[in-house]
Write a structure and sequence with these properties.
- A hairpin with a 6-residue loop joins strand 3 and strand 4.
- It is built from two helices and four strands; from the N terminus they run αββββα.
- Keywords: Membrane, Transmembrane, Transmembrane helix.
């Protein structure tokens, strides 16, 4: 075989490999997007606003400070550690 034919075959094999890999990555990313709970059908990220129970500010859920309530096993969201600590101290005073 001529060296030019070997080079052409090598290039074609490389391009086929790249196409297969890119198709595999697209399928993997699509599956990951489908399993994510904060994405919409078109792949856009959707963030939910939650209200801080202390200062009543609206905070994006992904950025909020989380605290799992001991009594009800629900998650309470706060705008900052300061509000979280105030909530904990108020819960302690009520008991």
């Amino acid at each position: 075989m001529h060296p030019i034919k070997l080079v052409v075959i090598a290039i074609l094999l490389y391009l086929g490999y790249r196409l297969l890999i890119s198709d595999w990555r697209k399928k993997r990313n699509k599956n990951a997007d489908d399993s994510a709970s904060d994405t919409t059908a078109d792949g856009a990220v959707e963030d939910v606003l939650v209200e801080d129970p202390i200062c009543h500010k609206l905070v994006p859920k992904q950025q909020a400070v989380r605290l799992k309530s001991k009594d009800t096993d629900t998650i309470v969201y706060f705008c900052s550690e300061k509000c979280c600590n105030l909530f904990i101290s108020k819960e302690g005073e009520e008991k």
